[in-house]
From TrEMBL:
InterPro entries: Lysozyme-like_dom_sf (IPR023346). Keywords: Coiled coil, Signal. This is Lytic transglycosylase domain-containing protein. It comes from Mycetocola reblochoni. Residues 243-258, 267-300 have a biased composition (Low complexity). Residues 243-325 are annotated as: Disordered. The keyword Transcription regulation does not apply. Residues 88-115 form a coiled coil. Residues 301-314 have a biased composition (Gly residues). SUPFAM superfamilies: Lysozyme-like.
Length: 423
């Protein structure tokens, strides 16, 4: 779906994920979060209530940003580990191929050396005999025949020695290549092991944050509900709706900017064509192509939002079936719950088959768009649940809410994807 770019450093990925939310810098400690006593006291006046609402909202921002950053670091570390493992596999294949070629070359060198030795021994025996015959022969014909035989034997010996020499050179070269390849393999093995350890540590840290974030979110939403005399669900849905509105504005702005670029490129091509400047038209066309590619990145980059049913998707993530088939079955139930028909589910299947194959761990290696809906960055899905990195249901909930708010229906999103190669 996304244009390929160089892999971003982990710190940059974390910063991008954190920037999805406008929370305060730095992770909050337990003492930073509002207590129920604070909430109760704040109910004494409207101004105190408003101040406490702002404090709770800031705490939610900080909590989401921290959890999103940890998840993004885990995704990036996992992708780096996969790349290092792939590089190691390539190195192992190279070592194996060189080892096989070296073994064949050593066999050929041994055979060539044996042949050269046998020819040399034969030359020594026949050469002495031929020399004696030359010295004793009185027959000119016999003399010429002996000279010809000796010359042929010498030529055979020379070729055998040359073949053996080349074989020894080939063996020496392949042995050096194999030793260098093995050194590279060892280096890559160490790098792969280090990356795997880093990925495991990042994943463990992100997993720990899921439980804490989920518990704190529940408390904070309940506190907001108490302060505003609503319910936790209403407050969560409102917060997610606000985030979705921001995303929709970004999406619209990106679409308008791209339309302006496309129109400028069209006018430039028309002007170049009118003036007969073929090279100018070609340049403008290239510019237009480049801007369209950029649009795919920016459009997908602004793809973010909330899943109003994210809470239900978070339950039982550790034991649930995370297969593509299970994700599709869950998505089908959520599509029906939204009042969409089977044709909309068919469009959704096509869309996310194209995006990720319904793999909850699908990662674009260049942009780190993540998950079944390919959220960019993946941390945007924090609004649907803290377990966005590992729970297909949370990803489905987020993706459906994003589609509903930005495109209206899965079929509209699928049409957009077919036209632009992103959604």
């Amino acid at each position: 779906m996304l244009p390929r770019r160089s892999l971003a450093p982990l710190g940059v990925v974390a910063l991008v994920a954190a920037s999805v939310f406008a929370g305060p810098a730095g992770a909050a400690t337990a003492d930073d979060y509002p207590s129920w006593d604070d909430v109760t006291k704040a109910k004494s006046s409207a101004s105190a209530t408003a101040a406490e609402v702002a404090r709770v909202s800031d705490a939610l921002d900080d909590l989401d940003a921290t959890a999103a950053a940890l998840g993004a670091d885990a995704v990036a570390a996992s992708e780096t580990s996969a790349q290092r493992a792939s590089e190691l596999a390539d190195a192992e294949k190279h070592v194996s191929a060189l080892t096989s070629r070296l073994s064949e070359a050593e066999d050929e060198e041994q055979q060539a050396s044996q042949t050269a030795g046998a020819v040399a021994a034969r030359l020594a025996r026949n050469g002495d005999s031929a020399t004696l015959r030359l010295a004793m022969s009185e027959d000119p014909g016999s003399l010429l025949q002996s000279l010809s035989s000796l010359e042929q034997l010498t030529s055979v010996s020379r070729r055998a020695l040359d073949t053996a020499s080349r074989a020894r050179g080939t063996v020496a070269s392949l042995r050096a290549d194999a030793e260098e390849a093995e050194r590279v393999r060892q280096d890559r093995a160490a790098a792969a092991a280090q990356a795997a350890d880093a990925a495991a540590a990042a994943s463990a840290e992100a997993d720990e944050a899921v439980a804490e974030t989920t518990a704190r979110q529940k408390t904070l939403y309940s506190q907001l509900a108490t302060l505003k005399d609503t319910s936790a669900k209403v407050e969560k849905d409102y917060r997610q709706g606000q985030e979705m509105a921001r995303v929709a504005r970004e999406q619209q702005a990106a679409a308008e900017a791209q339309a302006a670029k496309d129109e400028a490129a069209r006018q430039a091509r028309a002007a170049a064509s009118a003036s007969g400047t073929g090279s100018g038209g070609s340049s403008s066309a290239a510019s237009s192509t480049g801007s369209s590619s950029g649009s795919a990145s920016s459009g997908s980059g602004s793809s973010g939002g909330s899943g109003s049913s994210g809470g239900s998707g978070s339950s039982g993530a550790s034991s649930q079936d995370r297969s593509p088939a299970a994700a599709q079955a869950y998505a089908s139930s959520r599509v029906s719950a939204r009042g969409w028909g089977q044709e909309q589910f068919s469009c959704l299947v096509k869309l996310w088959n194209k995006e990720s194959g319904w793999n909850y761990q699908a990662t674009n290696p260049s942009s780190l768009a993540y998950g079944i809906p390919q959220a960019l960055p993946g941390g945007k899905m924090i609004t649907a649940g803290a377990d966005w990195r590992t729970n297909p249901r949370t990803q489905v909930d987020w993706g459906l809410s994003y589609i509903a708010d930005v495109y209206g229906t899965p079929c509209s999103a699928w049409s957009h994807s077919q036209a632009t190669n992103w959604y």
